[in-house]
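Sequence only, no structure available. Ideas?
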Amino acid sequence: MNTAIIVAAGSGKRFKSDKPKQFIEIHGKPLIVHTLERFQAASSINAIILVLAEDKIDAFKEIETRFPIPKLFAVVGGGATRVKSVRNGLAAIPAATEVVAAHDGARPLVSPGEIDATVEKAKATGAACLVAAVVDTIKTVRGNEIANTLDRDQLRRALTPQAFRVEVLERAFDLGDLSEAVTDECYLVEKLGHPIAVVEGNPRNIKVTHLDDLVLADAYLRTVKLG
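Reply:
I predicted one. Tokens follow.
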């Protein structure tokens, strides 16, 4: 059994909107519904845990009546940081879960195929991260000057889902670093010393962070089929 933890408990300060970004309608549905439907369609996922801010759980219940998600197993309250929210989700997974896939609720464009590939890789290796190539030339800086140019062939953007065998993720959480500096679960697993396999994904799997991102997400959702 494999379980997805969808994290949508952030305050969205960078989004600059009165309504939380996960509830803003895009292409006819709240953004979070698009994300949940991707995992509903993924054959590798048996259960979904949704992590929301405590004061947004009731609002989601109304949304769920309009857009039911049969695989939704539980809705739980988030923590003060992303990693604490994932830990709360981990505490709610079904007991039979073998692989956990953690995903940003604000990434509605991941494909079910990418989800399945990441879960299967994690099942085989213990840990896997969906990634995308870096297309820009990347510089390091020193003060106000360029110091170096990095080899972009060796760079990848970390996307989600990031999937792990349950025992690997639990050991990573046991390290005790739950600070804001931990921006994804791979960071903790790297500290654990466990190798993380990469799964090449599509760069359209963007995270909706700013209002302008909605325009791009809407364009993709109008042209890209669910699969």
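The radius of gyration is 17 Å.
Hope that gets you unstuck.
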